[in-house]
Amino acid sequence: MSALHIKKGSTSHSAYNLRPNFSDVQERHTITILVENEPGVLARVIGLFSGRGYNIDSLTVAEVDHTGHLSRITIVTTGTPQVIEQIKAQLGRIVSVHEVTDLTVAGPFVERELAIVKVVGEGEKRVEAMRLAEIFRAKVVDTTLNSFIFELTGAPDKIDAFAEMMRPLGLTKIARTGVAALLRGS
């Protein structure tokens, strides 16, 4: 009997059992896509998501190589491992796509987002908003006698926490850039 032979009903894994074990658990993944910077590419990437009913939690696009005409799209999405694998495979088939990297599985990565937050308040609420802004290292970029606009950079959960703390103090508007992310190390 060869070493690769597995008895029927055995729980051991064979070299021939290439089907990965997928679960129904929803996972958050940060995926970067290096693409040609040309008209229609973003529409094709977005079309892939919308056409199959996949949700995009965050989307950031910018040119990263002017001479090579390349842009990086960073998408944060949620799905089962099977759906995430399907998304990556389908993205890789788009002609203008050079590289698809799932940062969530590729290794440790840095992810940041910029938010601009408007808080309207007076008296104690104003003082408390300034105190919290200092704790979160938010920068005041505009101020009037009854409002502030804070600029805050950090991981998405830091932005979420800051917004939640500011809601009872008079948060009226928030604008977020979406996630920018890169793998750590060389």
From TrEMBL:
One of its GO terms (cellular component) is cytosol. Keywords: Amino-acid biosynthesis, Branched-chain amino acid biosynthesis, Transferase. Residues 30-105 form the ACT domain. Its EC number is 2.2.1.6. It catalyses: 2 pyruvate + H(+) = (2S)-2-acetolactate + CO2. Dimer of large and small chains. Belongs to the acetolactate synthase small subunit family. This is Acetolactate synthase small subunit. It comes from Phaeobacter porticola. The lineage of its organism: Bacteria, Pseudomonadati, Pseudomonadota, Alphaproteobacteria, Rhodobacterales.
